[in-house]
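From the pipeline queue, job 12 of 40. The input is one protein chain; the requested action is below.

Action: predict structure.
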Amino acid sequence: MLRYAVLAPSNHNTQPWLFRVRGNQVELYADRSRSLSVTDPNDRQLLISCGCALFQLRLAMWHFGHLDQTVLLPVPGDNDLLARVSLGEEDPPTPQQEALFHAIPLRRTNRQLFREDPLRPDLKHELVKAATREEATLHFVDDREQRNKIADLIAEGDRQQWANCRFRLELAAWIHPNDCEARDGIPNSAQNSGDLLSVAGPIVIRTFDLGEGQAAKDRDIAAYSPGLVVLSTRTDEPWAWIATGQALARVLLRARADEVWASYLNQPIEVPALRPRVAEILGTTDLAQLILRLGYGPNVNPTPRRTVEEVMIPTV
């Protein structure tokens, strides 16, 4: 089951999770040694990533014929123990659960250009329902004026992030050459072939502010992708971040089951001064947690993963 959990997405492919198995119970821990201090100083996205792994663990339990019994943040004061998941009673999976499970190895972050084909209205409805089931809200940004404003925010986020040398150092640390044997981070081959990052090695990223070019590219992608969505929650606390991750995993897998790809445009959420403006544009009081683009495109290779053994905490 953990082999499916570790295929979850994570910011910069940091894979910031650890697991301890006790009998028929799994404990999920945050691996804070993999924090991104510049883009994620409060470990918000780290906990979102762990929430993705948690959902895929639960989904694997369903596939193998068991309900799950999950308790979030089970020990008050222990901020690293995020969830305790026990095997529940036997119960055969539903066809919907099986479709999500079989999408796990097919789901990848796809940074390539998407075709213009629109998303089906019934699929958009299903994706909204998927987020709601995990206590989050998925907003489709279909209004052209709202879409342009969000795209402008994404471009401004690019400019501000790339102007920060600490941001460039952090990003460069997780970009790896294609022949690198690292089992984490982002290989160059995972980038859009037209993306500056695909031709800029870590030295270039660390040294030069590429913000204007990246901003122009990302603005166009946000403005013209078939789907642009914002995932939000009512509150902004560790519980909500884990819920966001579970909602994200369910949405991504439901999309992938319909051959829809996704990638992230989180720049304005990672810049504190810009983040509230996302909700203002959408006219909601919810807290924006993630921005995604959705669409149909070419297949991409999976990014590397650490083995289950590497993320297991030995049981004493």
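Job complete. The chain has two domains: 2-108+306-311, 137-163+209-295.
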